[in-house]
Specification:
- Two copies of one chain form a homodimer.
- Chain A is α/β, with parallel strands linked by helices.
- In chain A, helix 3 crosses helix 11, helix 5 crosses helix 10 and helix 12 runs parallel beside helix 14.
- The N and C termini of chain A lie far apart (47 Å).
- The interface between A and B is large, with 79 and 79 residues.
């Protein structure tokens, strides 16, 4: 049957992380492998109240087909939130999507022809790699450091080739946890301003800052070329699958056509619930609670790493988000560590899937958002033992 | 900016129906243009109860990220429903999608290379045309009659070319309202059995039968090549955006990869609500209520057509579903009628968008599911006056 498939899908492999998560589902395993928000922080009661109020007030209004662009009052709340952050976004430039993952798919669909070049962070978000791979993009990886992307590499890519897109997660990046400094952002913007390359600022974790200062958005530095992706998955709940794209007018027209052909519109019922939840509750207060918990969990993980990991193992220190990035001594493959770690009932994601065409790397991702402090300590201790044994 | 778009999106035009619906949004207009289920039949109370019970019992469990394939117990209910209809479907062959529209997009994504041929009903479902157009399919239209597709035309297409897909809505087709007879289905299956063409049986209206007998599924007649698409939009609610694909194993593997890269998974919260609703309520009883109302509305429309339309105007008589298809005398363009009808405050969809490359046709689609009987009568009377004036 294989000859019947499209070329685009034949080149995409099933997610390696997905396979790892299947291994890690054993409840006796301590898993730092996932990328899940902490379920104990879901605003269950407030969402239940919002849902009930809506059913009582608006009954059948919340259950019908709706517009492709998304529920207007929800988009207006997104505009207001950007305004608080100093960004002036027009409501017509917002499209509600099924999480920001669909934003990536729609952008791939309307922008990428086979062989088009895409600049991608390395290590970079696997979901973005997969999305663009479906449209047969060619990747130009640019290395991620503690303060952002490597500007020399970026200059070289921009000089020697012409890219449709650059994909970035400048705040608390997945997988490396780092944030771009303002200086790095300015340098990236300057570099791209000489090109026609769109810059995607994917910002699912931006509100989850537990240290340091907020940074400038690319939308301010490179307004004409920047596309923003946002998500309610990390600040409210992921199960609603609601996010959004901000894109300039001619591009938005194409995105709306692609969204309509793709699934007509996003879940209307949940857009209404989310909107009701946001007007009846203080989201900033809720986010503060999440930030306080994640900040504590990250600290516990860092302290445990200092206590239990061999000194040769280093890590990048995140100021927010959900991930911490570990580098092993060069000779040690994270895949080898993974196999031994599973025997000791602890899981993580080896670095490999976050790179284009590089294998047996000495890096790995640890998630701290969905694991309780005691369990974090125990898991890092187990992992430390594995590392000591291997080194 | 246009040179930056992908070739695939540049060739797709915004939906003509969408533009018409914008005109028809004026509340003083009687609209037969939409394709909406009747909102008065949404099971609001039962859904509210299901949601509340779930929040009370399962709280945070219903709000987290979930599996790409969809909620297993919901897929098991779909299997059970097929079993009642005499079809033996394995739960692993079902993928939950954002309505069956997303099923079309995923199938286009994993099957269609630029220029691949797709057999499509003419008139045919605009959403399918749009979805496959995005992947640059070439269409082979086959004419729809009262009893199904034109077998001679189909034989000719199959003999002279090689198609990846054939797209069908064999029950209460959109837009023509007709159903394929068992004889027609057998002839289609025989014709395709000599090919490697996949047959898509899209069945959003299949349960909404108010006259005649159920027909054989293509899954029985052509099991290896048939892909089923289903939807809860017409039997429960459209706002949840939940449907499904049934596809054989190697194809399903690719669809799951495409779904994962596209939006990770469908709305989990609504999958859980829908599942709870389905186990706590009698869906067949609910469907009977819908069928009784739609059957009555269709009868009122038919009676009014007989009373008010000129004798030269004919129509196809649907045994279920939501649409009735009208043919005007050959000289009269439905677009001309549309402009005059809007002046008389009544709207419908002219036939043009349902055809590949044909314009100024003398056909039109009337929707009867979402308009109350009195209003149907008044609207058909107005439209009859316009037609009499023009003829």
């Amino acid at each position: 049957m294989n000859e019947l498939f499209s070329n685009r899908i034949s080149s995409v492999s099933p997610s390696f992380i997905r396979e790892i998560l299947k291994v890690a589902v054993d409840p006796s395993i301590i898993s730092f492998a996932g990328g899940l928000p902490n379920r104990d922080l879901f605003p269950v009661e407030a969402l239940q109240k919002a849902t009930n109020d809506l059913f009582n007030d608006s009954g059948k209004d919340i259950l019908q087909y709706s517009s492709t662009e998304g529920y207007l009052p929800l988009r207006e709340l997104i505009v207001a939130d950007y305004k608080n952050k100093g960004l002036d976004i027009h409501v017509d430039d917002i499209l509600i999507t099924n999480g920001s993952q669909q934003g990536l798919d729609l952008l791939g669909k309307v922008l990428i022809n086979e062989g088009d070049q895409v600049i991608i962070e390395e290590p970079g978000y696997l979901g973005a790699i997969q999305s663009f791979e479906v449209y047969a993009a060619q990747f130009n990886p640019v290395t991620v450091h503690q303060d952002g992307v490597d500007i020399n590499q970026l200059e070289e890519i921009v000089t020697s080739s012409s890219s449709k897109l650059m994909y970035t997660v400048p705040n608390f990046q997945n997988p490396a946890g780092i944030s771009y400094s303002n200086e790095n952002r300015r340098a990236v913007a300057k570099c791209l301003s000489k090109t026609k390359t769109f810059l995607i600022e994917d910002n699912p974790y931006g509100d989850l800052r537990f240290a340091g200062e907020n940074k400038i958005s690319f939308k301010t530095l490179l307004p004409e070329q920047t596309i923003l992706l946002g998500s309610f998955s990390k600040t409210v709940v992921p199960g609603f699958r609601l996010g959004w794209i901000v894109a300039p007018k001619p591009l938005m027209d194409k995105l709306v056509i692609a969204k309509q052909a793709g699934d007509l519109h996003s879940n209307y019922f949940c857009q209404r619930i989310l909107h009701r939840f946001l007007i009846d509750n203080d989201l900033q207060k809720h986010i503060k609670k999440i930030v306080s918990v994640y900040g504590k969990q990250k600290q516990v993980m860092e302290d445990a790493i200092k206590q239990y990991f061999p000194k040769e193992v280093t890590y990048l220190n995140p100021e927010g988000g959900m991930f911490l990035w570990v580098t092993l001594p060069e000779k040690l493959s994270a895949m080898t560590v993974f196999d031994k770690a599973i025997e000791q009932k602890v899981a993580f994601v080896p670095g490999d899937p976050f790179y284009i065409n590089k294998r047996d790397l000495n890096t790995l991702r640890l998630n701290f958002s969905s694991v309780d402090p005691d369990v974090i300590k125990e898991g890092i201790q187990r992992l430390g033992k594995v590392l000591h044994d291997l080194l």
